[in-house]
Every structure is written in C-alpha cells, then in structure tokens.
Design a protein that fits this description.
With 286 residues, this protein is α/β, with parallel strands linked by helices. The chain has 3 domains: 107 residues, 3-Layer(aba) Sandwich (D-Maltodextrin-Binding Protein, domain 2), CATH 3.40.190; 77 residues, 3-Layer(aba) Sandwich (D-Maltodextrin-Binding Protein, domain 2); 80 residues, ACT domain (Alpha-Beta Plaits), CATH 3.30.70. Helix content is 27%, strand content 34%. The protein contains 9 helices and 16 strands. Strands 1, 2, 3, 4, 5, 11 and 16 form a 7-stranded mixed sheet that branches. A 5-stranded mixed sheet has the order 8-7-9-6-10. It has a 4-stranded antiparallel sheet with strand order 13-14-12-15, covered by helices on one side. Helix 2 packs parallel to helix 3 and helix 8 runs antiparallel to helix 9. The two termini are 28 Å apart. The mean pLDDT is 92.
Length: 286
C-alpha cells in the first residue's frame, strides 16, 4: 500500500513540512506514502473526499493568529471526513528576497496567516511596503526573480529548497509560534496505527434557532459531565446574517461513557451535529 498525502503546496510550505513529518512517521510503522501538493487547503480536503488522495494534512490553528477558517469551513461542508491525528509544528518565518537590503523592498508576498503573524515586525522594519496575500508561503517565492524590490515570507527550509537568499530570520512577532495541523482521512479508512487512547474529540454543530440560551444549553451538557473544552470557535453558517456554527475541541475520547452520554443529550439541542473524530497529538521537533 502506498498512500497519497494531500497538502497545501508547492513543496516548501509549512503544510508540506508537517506532511513530510507524518510521511516519515508512517514509514516507521511500515506504511509507504507519497506527498501530493494542492493549490489550496480546500482542494487538499476535497482530494480526500473524492478519493484522489488517502489523507490530507491541513492547518487548523495557529498560536498567534488563531483558527484557519478555510479548513474549518471546508470540513463542515464535506461529508465522511475524520480527524486521524493532530500535529504541532513550530513556525519560524524568514524574509526571502534578492534585494540587497530592506530599504530596497517595496512589496512583500505571503500567505495571509504568515503576513498576520509578522505584522509587528513588518510595521517596524518595512512600514511602507505593499503586503499582498498568496495561496501559500511557497507560491510567494515564485515572484522573487521578477522584481528585485519584492520579498516573500516563508520558511528557512523553503529558502534552502529553492536556493534563495535570506534577508532576515525569525521575523514572527512572538517566538513561541506554532501551528496545529490535522491529519484527515475518510471515515471508513483507518491509517492511524499504534496510537491508542485518544485524548481529544472535535465536533461542530448548528443550533435550531438564534434565541437566548441556544449555546448555553450545549455548553452546560459538557460542564455537567466534567468535560473540558480546549477550544470553541464560531463560524457563519453562510445562510443568513447572525447564524453561526460552533466548532469545539473536547478533552475526552469519543467512545468514553461520559462523551457518549454528552453527545446523546447534545443532539436534543442542536440542528446539525458533526463528529470529526477522536485523536492524539504529536509534537514535531525540528
């Protein structure tokens, strides 16, 4: 078996770095795999949903900028996807450019998350440049040879892969910068092996109506079962202004008695409930 792992590409993105770690982890379990880059996070997940890929490694949350909304929205829209594992990757941003110094830079390209994670540094050292978002940190690198006044924010690994000059390293605003990725498969496929006793469960739901107490009741269910919420996030339903979906990460296993009891009661207070799965977390050491 040779599994295809979808990720945001081209090679050199942080998603590819996390996917490469997972690929090697699989190989240590005796499972062969290869990486398949896609232009967007949504396309990476759609590749799994349509069986073009077996797995996807997608970012879900950054410690500085919070949730990656494209991942959350796409996961809600697609059916039959499950979280197999979470990976935590340390992030250190690098300014890459052919410009001889910072004074020559007029435009900086990068993924919106990377630009946001470096906004303090950019405001201090490049306050007058144009900031232009791209689909990925690596895609931004393709523009550098077109104009010497351009720069891109990406990883130092990407600079090495493409043999590009580095102007500044560690430019993210906070040194403790990390991104959590989810490894996603279809529901009926289980490629996560030798990891037992999952510690987290992720789910999302909509409420029947926007009325007082609509969210309190679901939250009380978990409080009464002594289940800790490690994350809660709202996203618009895209049906009507003021209607929201609620994404939650819970510190309990899906098949535990308290979780089964909580989910049974939760269905009485939700319109649509989607369980994305139970999983463990692996930290990536660079």
């Amino acid at each position: 078996m040779n599994l295809a792992i979808a990720h945001l590409g081209p090679p050199g993105t942080y998603a590819e770095q996390a996917a490469f770690f997972y690929l090697n982890w699989l190989k240590n379990q005796g499972i062969e795999a290869n990486l398949s880059p896609y232009p967007t996070i949504a396309q990476s997940l759609q590749a799994v949903a349509t069986q073009q890929a077996d797995l996807a490694v997608v970012p879900v949350e950054n410690s500085i900028e919070g949730s990656v909304t494209m991942t959350m929205d796409t996961l809600w829209q697609l059916e039959n996807l499950r979280i197999q594992l979470a990976l935590v990757l340390p992030i250190s941003h690098t300014l890459i450019s052919y410009a001889p110094n910072l004074d020559n830079i007029q435009t900086v390209y990068s993924h919106p998350q990377a630009l946001a994670q470096c906004q303090g540094w950019l405001g201090e050292f490049l306050p007058n440049v144009n900031l232009i978002p791209s689909n990925s940190t690596t895609e931004a690198l393709q523009r550098l040879n077109l104009e010497i006044t351009t720069a891109a924010i990406a990883s130092n690994r990407a600079a090495q892969l493409y043999n590009l000059p580095v102007l500044a390293t560690g430019i993210n605003d906070y040194p403790e910068n990390c991104t959590r990725f989810w490894v996603i498969s279809q529901v009926d496929h289980n490629y996560q092996i030798s990891l037992t006793n999952p510690t987290y469960t992720s789910l999302a739901f909509s409420v029947p109506a926007n009325v007082p107490g609509a969210l309190v009741k679901p939250l009380q269910i978990f409080a009464q079962q002594s289940i800790n919420l490690s994350r809660i996030e709202s996203r618009p339903t895209k049906r009507s202004l003021g209607e929201y979906l609620f994404f939650m990460d819970l510190e309990a296993e899906l098949n535990s008695f308290i979780m089964k009891s909580a989910l049974e009661e939760l269905q009485n207070h939700t319109e649509i409930l989607k369980i994305f799965g139970s999983y463990n977390v692996l930290s990536i050491t660079l």
